[in-house]
TrEMBL record:
GO terms for molecular function: medium-chain fatty acid-CoA ligase activity; transferase activity. Residues 19-379 form the AMP-dependent synthetase/ligase domain. InterPro entries: AMP-bd_C (IPR025110), AMP-bd_C_sf (IPR045851), AMP-binding_CS (IPR020845), AMP-dep_synth/lig_dom (IPR000873), ANL_N_sf (IPR042099). It comes from Variovorax paradoxus. SUPFAM superfamilies: Acetyl-CoA synthetase-like. This is Crotonobetainyl-CoA:carnitine CoA-transferase. Keywords: Ligase, Transferase. The keyword Transmembrane helix does not apply. Residues 430-505 form the AMP-binding enzyme C-terminal domain. Belongs to the ATP-dependent AMP-binding enzyme family. It holds the Pfam family AMP-binding. The keyword Lipid biosynthesis does not apply. PANTHER family: ACYL-COA SYNTHETASE, MEDIUM-CHAIN ACYL-COA LIGASE ACSF2, MITOCHONDRIAL. GO terms for biological process: fatty acid metabolic process.
C-alpha cells in the first residue's frame, strides 16, 4: 500500500487530496475513535468541508493562522482538517502552556482565531490578547469565562457546523501547520510545516511500522505534537483505523490497548521505563499489539519490554523540521542505534565547518530530503534563524551523532543548549527568563542532567541578589504559575557565583559536569 502512495504525484501530496482519496478508496471503513466519537474515512472529508465553512463564516481567509489549545478531542482534528481544506494553517498550542507562553504563540504566529478548551480558559487571564491578532475565540466544552476579553475580541461557543465548502486549490508547499519548538538562546520558533511534509510523515512512518489497512493505531500522545498528528496521516493514507486516548497512564496503558484492539502503539523514551516499573501482569500479554514506535528508548529497556510484553519497539530519528529520515526495522542487524538512513533522504555527519567526517567520528547530524517540501520551510517570521539552521543546503539538527561503518547512526548528545523531558523540548532561555523575574535571583543558568528514566531533568544554578535568600520550595512554586509543569526545574543549586568565560559568558558545560551534588535541592517529592 505505501509503495502505491509513495508514487502519488506532487499534486496529491496535500491534505485535501489525501482526504478526498481516502474517502473514495476506503469509504465506510472505520477511521477514527476519539473521546467517544467515531468517524469513517468518508466522514473525515465531510468534516473538513463543514469545519472549513464555519471558519470562512468566522472571517478566516486562505493564508490565515488558527491557534488551537485543546486536548485529544474531535474538535482539534476538525479544526486541523478544516484549516488545511480551505488553505489556512493551524497553530497547535501545548496544553501545559501558561499565559505568557500562550500570548507569545498567538502574537508570534499572528493567529486570527483561537480555539480553546473551556478548561484552559483561566490561562488567558495572564495573557494579553490585545497584544495579539486574535479577534475571535471559540470555546470547546463547558467552563467558566476567563474574565473580560478585550473589547474587539468576540468569545463564543465552538460552532456545531456549517454548510460544507469545496476544497481550496492548495499546493504541496503551502503551509499546513506552524508547530512551535523550543528555542535555545531565544524564544520558541514556529516551524512552518507544508502539506507535502505532512504527507511524507505519514508515508515514511507507515512504511517503517508496516502499517496496513487492517491495523489499529493507538496513541496516548497529544495532538499538538507532530507524533500524534502523524498517526492520523498514516491511517488516512493506508485505510487503517486510529484511536486517540486522552492521556498516558502507566496503570491504564495495557487495559486501554486491549480495549481499543490496538496493533501498533507509539511510545517515547521515558514511557517505557515507567511501564516497566509497573508490577508484571497477564495484561501485558493479553493484547493484539504487534509493534510500536519507541524513539529514545534505552536498548536494555527495549529488550526488557519485548521480553515482558512481546512487543518489539522500533527506533528512529525525526524532528519537527525534518521527517522520519532514520529508522531501525524488525530485521535490523543490531540494536542500540537510531537506525539507518531511509529512502528519500541524505545525511551527513559534519564538523563545525560543515565538513563531512569519516565513519566513527562524532559530529553534527545534517539532513536533507530528495522530494520537494518533505521538510519544513523554515521558521515563521524568523528569517535569520531559518538561514542559520538551513545553511549550506543542509538542515542542521543540533544533535551530535556517530555514523558507524555499517551505516548505522548512534546518538551521542545535543550540541544545542536544549532540554528534552517527558517528550517535550524545553527552552533553557525561557526557563531562565522566569527565574530572573523572581526578585531574589541575580543570575541563573538552566541546563539538563540525566534522570533515572534515561531522559533529561531540568536543573538550575542560581546566584541570589545581595541581601536576599533563595528558598527553593518558594521558587519552585513561583515557577509553577509561570511555566509548563514539565519545564519547572526539578533540581536547584544556589551558588556564590556561576562559572564564566573571560568575557562573562556562563560555562554551562562545567555546571553539567558538576551535576547533582549533596547540597542540591530536589523538588521531585513536591510533584510526585
Amino acid at each position: 500500500m505505501t509503495s502505491e502512495v509513495r508514487a502519488l504525484p506532487p499534486a496529491q501530496r496535500t491534505l485535501p487530496a489525501m482526504l478526498q482519496r481516502q474517502a473514495a478508496q476506503f469509504g465506510s471503513r472505520p477511521l477514527l475513535r476519539i473521546a467517544g466519537r467515531q468517524w469513517t474515512h468518508s466522514d473525515a472529508a465531510e468534516a473538513a468541508g463543514v469545519r472549513a465553512g464555519a471558519l470562512v463564516q468566522a472571517g478566516v481567509a486562505r493564508g490565515d493562522r488558527i491557534a488551537v489549545m485543546c486536548g485529544n478531542r474531535i474538535e482539534f482534528l476538525e479544526t486541523f482538517l478544516g484549516a488545511g481544506w480551505m488553505g489556512a494553517s493551524i497553530v497547535p498550542v501545548n496544553t501545559a502552556s501558561m499565559g505568557p507562553q500562550i500570548e507569545y504563540f498567538l502574537a508570534n504566529s499572528a493567529a486570527k482565531l483561537l480555539v480553546i478548551e473551556a478548561g484552559f480558559l483561566d490561562r488567558l487571564k495572564t495573557a494579553d490578547l490585545g497584544r495579539t491578532s486574535v479577534r475571535e475565540v471559540w470555546v470547546v466544552g463547558e467552563g467558566d469565562a476567563a474574565g473580560e476579553p478585550p473589547a474587539d475580541v468576540r468569545v463564543s461557543n465552538y460552532p456545531e457546523g456549517s454548510e460544507a465548502i469545496a476544497p481550496a486549490a492548495v499546493q504541496p508547499g503551502d503551509p499546513l501547520a506552524i508547530l512551535y519548538t523550543s528555542g535555545t538562546t531565544g524564544p520558541a520558533k514556529g516551524v512552518i510545516c507544508p502539506h507535502a511534509q505532512y504527507f511524507w510523515w505519514g508515508v515514511n512512518s507507515a512504511e517503517v511500522l508496516g502499517v496496513g489497512r487492517d491495523d489499529v493505531l493507538c496513541t496516548t500522545l497529544p495532538l499538538f505534537h507532530i507524533n500524534a498528528l502523524n498517526t492520523f496521516a498514516q491511517a488516512a493514507l493506508t485505510g487503517a483505523e486510529v484511536v486517540f486516548e486522552s492521556r498516558f497512564s502507566a496503570s491504564g496503558f495495557w487495559p486501554s490497548m486491549r480495549a481499543s484492539g490496538a496493533t501498533v502503539v507509539y511510545l517515547l523514551g521515558a514511557m517505557v521505563p515507567i511501564l516497566l516499573a509497573q508490577p508484571p501482569g497477564d495484561g501485558e500479554r493479553d493484547h493484539r499489539v504487534r509493534t510500536g514506535l519507541g524513539p529514545g528508548v534505552p536498548s536494555a529497556a527495549g529488550q526488557a519490554f519485548k521480553a515482558r510484553t512481546g512487543v518489539s519497539l522500533l527506533e528512529g530519528y525525526g524532528s519537527t523540521e525534518t521527517n522520519f529520515a532514520i529508522a531501525t526495522a524488525p530485521d535490523s542487524p543490531r540494536g542500540g542505534v537510531m537506525g539507518w538512513l531511509r529512502p528519500g533522504f541524505q545525511a551527513c555527519v559534519a564538523d563545525e565547518d560543515d565538513v563531512a567526517l569519516p565513519p566513527g567520528e562524532a559530529g553534527e547530524l545534517l539532513l536533507r530530503a530528495d522530494e520537494p517540501y518533505a521538510f519544513a520551510s523554515g521558521y515563521f517570521n524568523m528569517p535569520e534563524k531559518t538561514v542559520e539552521a538551513w545553511r549550506n543546503l543542509w538542515f542542521h539538527t543540533g544533535d551530535r551523532v556517530v555514523r558507524d561503518a555499517d551505516g548505522a547512526f548512534r546518538f551521542v548528545d545535543r550540541i544545542k543548549d536544549a532540554i528534552r523531558r517527558r517528550g517535550e523540548n524545553i527552552s533553557s532561555f525561557e526557563v531562565e527568563q522566569v527565574l530572573l523575574s523572581h526578585p531574589g535571583v541575580a543570575s541563573c543558568a538552566v541546563y539538563p542532567v540525566r534522570s533515572e528514566l534515561a531522559e533529561d531533568e531540568v536543573m538550575a544554578a542560581l546566584v541570589a541578589r545581595e541581601g536576599e535568600r533563595i528558598d527553593p520550595v518558594e521558587l519552585s512554586r513561583f515557577c509553577e504559575g509561570r511555566l509548563p509543569y514539565f519545564a519547572v526545574p526539578r533540581y536547584i543549586d544556589v551558588l556564590p557565583d556561576l562559572p564564566r568565560t573571560e568575557n562573562g559568558k556562563v560555562q554551562k558545560f562545567k555546571l553539567r559536569e558538576r551535576g547533582v551534588g549533596p547540597h542540591t535541592w530536589d523538588g521531585r517529592p513536591l510533584r510526585s
